[in-house]
């Protein structure tokens, strides 16, 4: 089999697995944080629970698929030709061990999720539950940085990736819960209590992730403009710019009209647009992590 034909499918499928993994990670971790600190009553609602279940499945499936497809990419073989021996060989290197640890962390995340589904608000407001969920979240986000470009750049880059991912999760995961859980209820008290707090959190998250992302992009790509990495980065930044504009519209609406609004339809449309754009940005991030900064 031609080597280029063998490697390209592995890279394409790995990019898809990364997108699924990133989406699940952001929605699950951001969603649980939203319920724990901004809207504990939502832990008893059906829609947020359903969102977290789907997010957990995406994260777990994306991680397992990522491990197998990474083995195919490293071994330079087609995905369907991956053997148990190939996977074992990858597990013997730090990169593979990070993927394995990530998969095990998703198992533990499932335990946290089951407890939340069973006890609802009591779990979300419980200190032991929050500590356990926070420890697992840290592990999932930390291993995400260990399976990308950051390990080649030293501890500071890994710290920047961790901060970047925390901010993205809080922003985008919160958006998803806001869209699927808070807004459909149209409860005025809930809206006036939860939305301003999330708006403040989102603003801080955007500021942090912009700074961390700019630092990482400069360190990984420098001032090169003729590489695949640079071109994908331009697409990602363009999508992020539109996403930021939608976010600013949402925040202005919250600041100026939430207290007296008779309908939240404009805000809901803006949040829906933000969520779609956020998933598109995650897709660009999945392409970035499988692209070489030097090519």
TrEMBL record:
The keyword Transmembrane helix applies. GO terms for cellular component: plasma membrane. Residues 193-288 form the Copper resistance protein D domain. It is found in: Cell membrane. The chain crosses the membrane at residues 20-39, 51-75, 95-117, 129-149, 155-179, 200-218, 230-250, 271-291. The lineage of its organism: Bacteria, Bacillati, Actinomycetota, Actinomycetes, Pseudonocardiales. Its main location: membrane. Keywords: Cell membrane, Membrane, Transmembrane, Transmembrane helix. It comes from the Bacteria. The keyword S-adenosyl-L-methionine does not apply. It is a multi-pass membrane protein. One of its GO terms (biological process) is copper ion transport. This is Copper transport protein. It comes from Saccharothrix variisporea. PANTHER family: INNER MEMBRANE PROTEIN YEBZ.
């Amino acid at each position: 089999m031609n080597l280029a034909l063998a490697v390209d499918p592995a890279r394409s499928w790995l990019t898809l697995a990364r997108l699924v993994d990133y989406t699940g990670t952001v929605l699950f971790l951001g969603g649980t944080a939203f319920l724990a600190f901004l809207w504990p009553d939502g832990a008893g609602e059906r829609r947020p629970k359903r969102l977290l279940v789907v997010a957990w499945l995406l994260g777990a499936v994306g991680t397992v698929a990522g491990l197998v497809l990474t083995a195919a990419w490293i071994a330079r073989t087609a995905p369907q030709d991956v053997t148990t021996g190939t996977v074992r060989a990858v597990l013997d290197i730090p990169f593979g061990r990070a993927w394995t640890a990530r998969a095990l962390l998703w198992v533990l995340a499932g335990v946290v999720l089951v407890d939340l589904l069973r006890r609802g608000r009591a779990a979300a407001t419980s200190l032991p539950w929050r500590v356990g969920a926070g420890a697992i979240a840290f592990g999932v986000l930390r291993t995400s940085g260990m399976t990308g470009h950051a390990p080649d750049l030293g501890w500071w880059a890994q710290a920047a990736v961790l901060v970047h991912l925390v901010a993205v999760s809080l922003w985008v995961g919160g958006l998803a819960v806001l869209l699927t859980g808070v807004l459909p209820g149209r409860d005025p008290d809930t809206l006036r209590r939860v939305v301003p707090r999330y708006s403040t959190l989102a603003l801080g998250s955007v500021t942090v992730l912009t700074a961390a992302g700019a630092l990482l992009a400069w360190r990984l790509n420098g001032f090169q403009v003729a590489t695949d990495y640079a071109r994908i980065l331009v697409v990602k930044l363009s999508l992020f710019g539109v996403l930021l504009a939608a976010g600013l519209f949402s925040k202005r609406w919250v600041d100026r009209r939430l207290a007296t609004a008779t309908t939240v339809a404009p805000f809901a449309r803006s949040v829906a647009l933000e969520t779609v754009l956020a998933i598109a940005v995650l897709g660009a991030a999945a392409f970035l992590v499988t692209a070489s900064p030097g090519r």
